[in-house]
């Protein structure tokens, strides 16, 4: 297990620019970097929800950076180049899509975690499409150790599992990592750094299994790093839109996945029945709505009206005779198929009796 | 004196209880395993893929808690060792994260339900030697396009396994054991269970829309391609079945002809013997093993015909099911049109 000692711990930044500046600076001048770093501490390494992250921060930082660059320029031995604080303010153009298997895997891993671990961490696999959408298709857990200021991740395990997964599906590559728990913590930035060595712009997924705030929050972040010259100060985790439409789970049916135990998987007729019932209730609702609007009980909404009209118009218009012909043909086809299959089954039982009952002698 | 006797009988009772395992009644799968199987099979469809099931064997319930896929093997023989290594590696890694490390079977994908092959039976026998209770889960991705979760749990019946081991598939043996083609495979009902955490997540994340993707799949009117392929496979299977039946007819014809020949030869021998007795010579034996008409003809094995019959019945069931659905959809369309 490789260990990560934090190169830059946020708590230590307080004194860091002083390494660059020489000792002739008096205390007053050193205080500026300290102040601006404290402002950074408050703003960064926490998720920001708005797409324009911390609009209040840039003016503050810019002024602080101007001062610091001046100081740097005057006191540094090689003062030819200006060191500027890099701060990407724009929202990233990446978005992510998650498959339900990943969510199930993470929750299962959380339930099975060892007793002393507070959270689980693992790798996300998937693919990136050309327009910047990252599809997260698979995941696996990586054992890790976490203490107050150190995070240790089992890199050999991560690598072995990745190789094994590659054997099955070579198209799935590492796209990021996940952790359970709410929000982004200090240790996360270190792990994120590790993953950014594996893939270019890793996605960090947090799954809040503790249901803080009383809701299930699943968020994805990418990180942008704040650099001052050559030195990285902090990592800014910006939230990216996450598409959680869970179409595959819909296909299986949420009834199967929602309840803690389902007694049997519905066969085709039962499934058909429930779909028909849903359709029936939908049509009923629409009917009631239209009735209400006509009677004047409910204010009609033009958009809804247009949708209904469109839906009704999409029924193909066939003359009754044509429709009857098509309909009867189809019914005849189906009936003949049922007849054929019943005939085959009868034939099978006869054949079997003949085969085993025949005796010579 | 009474005590040791009861003690022994108690011990005997305990040992006899341990040996009889309760019969497998239900397979309980976790939602995670279901989704993983579906994902793997769908990704590689129409190629057929397999994977391993992991879980626990508890009483009359076989729990499947996790699974992992097998890489598709090339025809190369060198990769056999690779496959075993892969399996060991995966099991070891999963053990480290507290996943149940116990193999309880394997899963495979199938195309329109044509999975009853001799290889399946062989794999079953291989697994059965090592694991007391194992199950095979079959998933059909092509049927899932109709909106059905086509998962099936299969097991070989015990009587069939005994017969297979003795490698004896004559008509008599089969009649003795009352083994018809229906009794080869046993289907076990599947239950799905989920942990409370994931159930909470799913309840939160369920979209508010009243219509889901599976409804769209089910109410599709075009079931024709599915039926067509089913019928194609059915026809092919019927051809195979007639080939098998021809084999049996040929065998019976040969057998009866051989017996007729034997009778004729026996008659001649008897006549010869009577003549010899009249002449005072020794009678010749009534049997002659070197004569080719006494060579026993091997009865063809009925295993293939059983498997084919199973496949055919499967196709018929599927056609029935799809046609039934088709009826409902058509009547729905008719009602809509009239309005």
Automatic annotation (TrEMBL), chain A:
Keyword annotations: Cytoplasm, Initiation factor, Protein biosynthesis
Pfam hit, one: MitMem_reg
PROSITE patterns registered for this protein in UniProt: MPN (PS50249)
CDD domains given in the database record: MPN_eIF3f (cd08064)
Compartments reported by the entry: Cytoplasm
Keyword Amino-acid biosynthesis found: no
Domain MPN: residue ranges: 96-227
Molecular function as annotated in GO: metallopeptidase activity; translation initiation factor activity; translation initiation factor binding
Region (Disordered): 1-25
Example of a GO cellular component annotation carried by this entry: eukaryotic translation initiation factor 3 complex, eIF3m
GO biological-process terms attached to the record: formation of cytoplasmic translation initiation complex
Family: Belongs to the eIF-3 subunit F family.
Quaternary structure annotation from Swiss-Prot or TrEMBL: Component of the eukaryotic translation initiation factor 3 (eIF-3) complex.
Function: Component of the eukaryotic translation initiation factor 3 (eIF-3) complex, which is involved in protein synthesis of a specialized repertoire of mRNAs and, together with other initiation factors, stimulates binding of mRNA and methionyl-tRNAi to the 40S ribosome. The eIF-3 complex specifically targets and initiates translation of a subset of mRNAs involved in cell proliferation.
Protein's UniProt name: Eukaryotic translation initiation factor 3 subunit F
Protein source organism: Rhynchospora pubera
Automatic annotation (TrEMBL), chain B:
Major subcellular location class: cytoplasm
Record bears the keyword Cytoplasm: yes
Pfam families: eIF3h_C, JAB
Domain MPN: 27-160
Alphabetized GO MF terms: metallopeptidase activity; translation initiation factor activity
Transmembrane segments annotated in the record for this chain: none
InterPro entries: eIF3h, eIF3h_C, JAMM/MPN+_dom, JAMM_MPN+_peptidase_M67A, MPN
Extent of Basic and acidic residues compositional bias: 270-280
Recorded superkingdom: Eukaryota
GO cellular component: eukaryotic 43S preinitiation complex; eukaryotic 48S preinitiation complex; eukaryotic translation initiation factor 3 complex
Key word Cytoplasm present: yes
Compartments (UniProt record): Cytoplasm
Region (Disordered): 270-293
GO-annotated biological processes: formation of cytoplasmic translation initiation complex
UniProt keyword terms in alphabetical order: Cytoplasm, Initiation factor, Protein biosynthesis
PROSITE patterns reported in the protein's UniProt record: MPN
Annotated family: Belongs to the eIF-3 subunit H family.
Function per UniProt: Component of the eukaryotic translation initiation factor 3 (eIF-3) complex, which is involved in protein synthesis of a specialized repertoire of mRNAs and, together with other initiation factors, stimulates binding of mRNA and methionyl-tRNAi to the 40S ribosome. The eIF-3 complex specifically targets and initiates translation of a subset of mRNAs involved in cell proliferation.
HAMAP family documented for this protein: eIF3h (MF_03007)
Binding partners and assembly: Component of the eukaryotic translation initiation factor 3 (eIF-3) complex.
Protein name: Eukaryotic translation initiation factor 3 subunit H
Organism encoding this protein: Rhynchospora pubera
